[in-house]
Give the backbone structure.
Amino acid sequence: TKRGTRKRQEKVVSNDLDFYTNIKKMIVYISRKGLNLAKSGKIKQVDLKETENRLLRPDISLFLEKSQIYQIELLLPVMRLLDIVRVKKDDAVLRNNYEDVLKKDLFELMKQVIQEIGQSRNRVVRYEDVFESLYVPFFLKPVFDECVEFIKRRNRVMYTVVMASLIREKLVLSKKFKIKDFQQDLIELRKELTSALFFLQLLGLMRVEYPDRWVEISDLGRHYFNGDQLKEQDDPGGIIINPDLSLIAIPEQITLESLSLLKMFAELKSFDNVYTFQITRESFQEGLLLKAKKEDFLDFLNRASANDLPQNLLFSIEDWSNNLPLVTITDECVVVQTEDPNHMELLLGQISGKKIVLQKISSTTVLIDPEKIYETIGYAEKLNLIVRLIR
């Protein structure tokens, strides 16, 4: 490398099951915080930023101009296809069987998502803008399939070669080729190829090698397209747990399910060949809200840990599981409930005298002013209570 120039970063990235995990994380975000839209019907800046911090960040840098899109802008349109969100007044709210999606196996959810996106272009009804995939339109199934077949044939190929070859094959060598339509047809086809490759990467089906952007079908992609076997057993020593509950995971030594379980129960700190996680009360309790099972997590840690599990980890997990401080807020009549009278007492200590409470029903239930939901959520969060908003 010449002096004064930085060597471009070399890395190989595959998004695994991150996008599907993010659908579950987004359900939990909306159920905990609500999602109040701007008057224009768009997502507010505060939610764009906060969700970006809370969600996993699948790599979307294959097309640099698309790499600034927020995850929430990609998730909401897919969640609308799954029919688990809608607009109610000024809010995006959860609906129908969103609890079933939370409980769903990630591989099953992957199949459902890819199928729904593949059929989405046949849809006649237009959704509200917040639920339309405006920044990158959903792929056209035949173009998506052609990209997959082309990459499979070449094994490993630069993404520009995929685009150039398919433009040549489908446009220039087409029997219907007309020079006067070429410019418009080229713009359309490039847009379709961009969508197909973008979603192949986002959905974890394609691995990208930077800086030159070589692409190949990922392990998850080969499993989905060809039925190839994925790693089925965690290796002992695949994770190292420190006394401060930080954790290192070696991706080659654990299964995709186990890695996804870690991403639900622990906070992802960094990835550079190995993953670094931190297990905290908040991250663990979010795992429970994502309907992941504590027993599965402990089984995995025992199986894959290089050493015995620290006693403080076992004690903390037991404590955090038994003390899930849930506050349930129901829209319309606006009932606020806690599981534990002590938690209601704490909350009333904050909100009494502020014209929020309309009536106390019992030691765990009060009615509040419908206009004061977000204020109540704010006070509950200050007390580290976990909010579940039902709308």
Remarks:
- Confidence is low (pLDDT under 50) at residues 1-6.
- The radius of gyration is 24 Å.
- The first strand starts at residue 11 and ends at 13.
- The CA atoms of residues 261 and 296 lie 8 Å apart.
